[in-house]
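All the exercises in this workshop are built on plain-text protein records. Sequence and backbone structure share a record, each on its own labelled line. The question running through the whole workshop is how a given chain folds. The record below serves as our worked example for the rest of this section.
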Amino acid sequence: MRVEQEAMSTERMGTVGRTLGMLADTWTLLILQRAFLGIRRYAGWRETLNISDATLTARLRSLTDNGLLYTRPYREGGRARLEYRLTERGRDTWRLLLATWAWERSWVPRDVPLPDIVHLECGRATDVVLCCEHCGAAVGPQDTAVSISGMVAGRGGLARVHPRRTRGRLPEDPLSLLPGAMEIIGDRWGATVLGACLVGVRMFTDFEAHLSISPEVLTDRLRRFVELGILVRTEDAGYRLTDKGRAAFGIHACLVDWANRWQAADGAPVDLHIRHRACSHPLRVQLNCAGCGVPFTRAAVAPPKPAGP
């Protein structure tokens, strides 16, 4: 991946910066995951995720305010209540969630394996191949060029929509236990550091300069990435992506693709472009079945059965 720095043209938070503040949060992603699995009511999320009332209420409000969920009234026990359903914008996060699931399943050892990804069109348990929607070719970080319009993190750092994520235990339900992927995409600074690594940032001082990140936060995220095997230290005291780290490009590309379509529609300036060098088009993500080569659609992924009610 080659990066081209452009002059900052706006002080406003851009598409990717805004999306990181909104989606790069463990509980937000798990609530969206469960919405795809059919959870619509408050009690369903609380019981399957073992999430606190305060956290669940705040995340549902944020997802509704940001147009990913909408509410629909229903009555139960004589009382009026609300259920939550995915909007088109919310449903369009399926590529990000599928890429996150696929990376965790392939790269993070676990006692209880994640269920297979099943492509309903060919009926096979399969893997996911990131491709360019324009030309159909498989794409990795080495096949792309990135242009950044200003600092994705902004002058004052990334917006914090939710309180700082705690490092406590994730839900014990195997469908929600995604410890590796949530270090990458379940934390706004983790996702930002991964993006910087993918465009070739290697040295501590360069991370600080490009990301406007505090030394303490940066030290923590780099240490966690080394422990997870996403990065290795180099002889010149820098950091280099491992194969595991480069494989996380799919998560990053899906996040940027979603941000540039939906946040730009809301008027946010596009702050990060990924271009497929082979066809010279902006990268629009297409996820293909590794078995039959046919692109996944949202309806062609067999959902695993969640535990609990």
